[in-house]
Amino acid sequence: MPAFASCGEAIILGLVSGPACIAACGPILVPSLLAEHKGFRPHARYLSVFLAARLLGYMLFAVVAWELGLLASLLPAPRLLLMGVVYVLLAGVLLWYAYSARRSCAQPCADSKLVQITENRNHGVTGAAALGLLTGLNLCPPFVVAGIRAAQMGSMAAALLFFTVFFLGTSIWFVPFVGLGCIVRNQAVITVARMAMVLIALYYISMGIAMLLGKKAYGY
Amino acid sequence: MATDARTLPLARPAPRGIGWSLLLTLPILVWSLLMFFNPGSSKTPIWIISGAITALFMTTLFFMMMRSRSTYRWRRIFFVSLGVLFPIGFIYNIVVMRGTMGIPVEEMIAGRTPFCFMPIPMLILPAAFTRTLVFPGSIASASHGIAAMVGVWLALTLVMGKGWCSYACFFGGIEEGVAAIPARAKIRKLDPRLRYLPWAVLLAMVLLSLALFEPAYCMWLCPFKAVSEYVAARNLLGLVQNVIFILLFAGLVIVLPFLTKKRTQCSWFCPFGAFQSIFNKISIFEVKIDKERCKPCLVCLNACPNLSLSKESVARGETLLSCMKCGACVDVCPRQAIVWHIKGTEIAWKPERARLMFLYAAWAMAIMFGGSIIAQGIATILHFIV
Questions:
Q1: What angle do CA B125, B144, B91 make, to 5 degrees?
Q2: What does the pLDDT read at residue A123?
Q3: Which residues of A are less than 8 Å from B208 in CB distance?
């Protein structure tokens, strides 16, 4: 019965936190999806990989934090450090993604088959996996809330179950992103997506560095 | 063999008669007087003088538009004046109220940050998701309030589309003035892909505003913070923000317009301009190219200050979505193939009438919105002189 109750609590927490989750993941997910093939199937595949990697990130963090006894009591300084590292890595992946989209676009973009931005299917999968994993490790507010609640569970298995169900609750909110597959892909859309990725990467890299500098950047 | 009259080059239309021009200017004169001398309002002598100067200025420019039948150069005088006088009036006001150009965090928490139109696209998603405005300003304040600015913007945008960027924006005038200084562009070859950059800035800023729950553009990328109000830097991060503002202003508003003779901030960066482009689909006024009359000599491509024309768009007989309706291409076309146009009508249907209808709407808006800013700037200058 307590397991059912905690699962119910986790899914409700996930459902109500969903908008905050898509807000936190939006800057990463939207441009990278727009740089993908047109159509529902490529988007569904990308999103599945992204979410699976995000779940893996959740689990990894939960296991490590549980073992270290930090799940609920991660102090501001190490939290800032972790987020700084994640932000810098996210920026790196986004820059790589923007660059590789250009490279794969170079040949077919000249003709009407522009939608075929890449023949290399691994491009999207690798990028989605890397971005999903890093967003899973990103300590966004809903994740912190779930972490605090999961820390009160009796065992690591119960905490992981809580995280998994919480993740499922939030994931429902990501389904509409598949709709981005309807948007026409042409040189304009892909270029805008790539440029946006670079800009967002610049933001993450500057914030990441600021977080790593900590007191020197923030003054407190 | 009969020749279609529309394929023949046309002589420049002769200036309109002074009487007709005055008659056409009369509604604008009345509107100016109503705007700056509305009955029942008590005004100081400085305000009366600045209002009179502004009314005369705006009416004279409109008269010249009517008389010369050209639009761009007269509009540019207004627009550059707006761009130069806005910071003067604005900075004076905030220094009087706050004692500094910097916005301290306390002012933001208290919701006293003046609202400009730039963050409007960044407010939409957070408002939709959380019913919260992510701007540290007041909704109901009469001056610089969010509701007032959004209301004015919406009303004008539905009519003008991206004409806002040529007749109302108080930021674009500085770069248009700088772009007018050199006789020739030093850099002529411009990568057409840079036209996509404002859309990328828009996408990135809208998404980051939702993620960070703050108007990301205002916090990080607005070049005009350098001439309006900057972040009161209390740490390294604040210093970095201000350095970004200054570098963007120097690069996009001063150096690049001087080198390219284009409005580079508007063409390559402004996310609000990209957002505003969408409303060109709604606005009934547009600029079209009569394909039968067009040669094409592509003089218009060089004249367009916003890179809103391409060879492909000219061949299609239309401007790009980013057209700001400034009139530069219309005025410069040697065959008068580029015309003001009202959607739903034939392309050759009385273009001068379409121009007049557009200009009445645009100039009324310019007087109401930009005119009050010009008057404020003049009043500030007079305050220091008198």
A1: 120
A2: 55
A3: 27, 200, 203
H helices within B249-283, ranges in order? 256-260, 264-268, 271-278
Pick the CATH number of B284-349 from 1.20.120.1200, 3.40.190.10, 3.40.630.30, 3.30.70.20: 3.30.70.20
What is the C-alpha separation between B314 and B329, in angstroms, rounded?
11
Low-confidence ranges of chain B (pLDDT < 50): 1-3, 5
pLDDT for res A124: 63
Q: Quick one: pLDDT at residue B142?
A: 63
Q: What angle do CA A88, A211, B209 make, to 5 degrees?
A: 75
Interface pTM, i.e. ipTM: 0.87
User: What's the domain count of chain A?
Assistant: 1
- Structural domain boundaries, residue A134: 2-218
For chain B, the structural domain boundaries read: 16-99+350-386, 102-282, 284-349
Nearest-by-CA chain A residue for B128? A19
pTM of the model: 0.89
Is residue B213 a contact partner of residue B285, using CB atoms and an 8 Å limit? no
pLDDT at A73: 64
Of A31-40, A65-74, B83-92, which gets the smallest average pLDDT? Answer: A65-74
Count of C-beta atoms within a 10 Å radius of residue B311: 11
DSSP letters, chain A, are -HHHHHHHHHHHHHHHHHHHHHHHHHHHHHHHHHTS-SSHHHHHHHHHHHHHHHHHHHHHHHHHHHHHT-TTT--HHHHHHHHHHHHHHHHHHHHHHHHHHHHHHTTGGGSSGGG---S-HHHHHHHHHHHHHHHHHS--HHHHHHHHHHHTSSSHHHHHHHHHHHHHHHHGGGGGGGGGGGSPP-HHHHHHHHHHHHHHHHHHHHHHHHHHHTHHHH--
Per the prediction, chain A carries an average pLDDT of: 81
- Which residue among A19, A31, A199 sits closest to B201, beta carbon to beta carbon? A199
Rg (alpha carbons) of chain B, rounded to whole number: 21
Q: If you count them, how many residues does chain B have?
A: 386
Find chain B residues with C-beta within 8 A of A19's C-beta. Answer: 129-130
Mean per-residue pLDDT, A143-161: 81
Tokens describing residue B99: 């004692």
Residues on chain B touching A193 (C-beta within 8 angstroms): 200, 203
